[in-house]
What we know:
alpha+beta, two-stranded parallel sheet, Aldehyde Oxidoreductase, domain 4
Amino acid sequence: MVTLVVSQAEMGQGISTTLPALLSDELGADWSRVRLELAPTAPAYANPRLKFQFTGNSESTQSFYAHLRQVGATARTMLASAAAQRLGVPLAELSVADGRVTHTASGRSLRFGELAEDASSAHRRPCGPTTR
């Protein structure tokens, strides 16, 4: 299951479908296994363009489009890298679709859920300001 935590309120403009669809498309997720969860009020969920939580002025898709594409592409690469390591094959020989990373030549594949822990632990880095 892929869960997208969204800080934007659905006000009839379709963002509860559009934002998860953006992520799902770039990630290569199985659309039937994508769900939306509403974010709590917190700075981490600020609109990336406006820098605060805000829904209005048709801002949702415009503000989150590039951000969700980047998040999806990064996660896809992390999952594929974990699969390449686990399967012992070059990253270039893998494809990602429908929530699976597949080595086409051998037919072997792994689900996102099987790769998530490896993908996240191999690529840990601070997600915001840090202090030493």
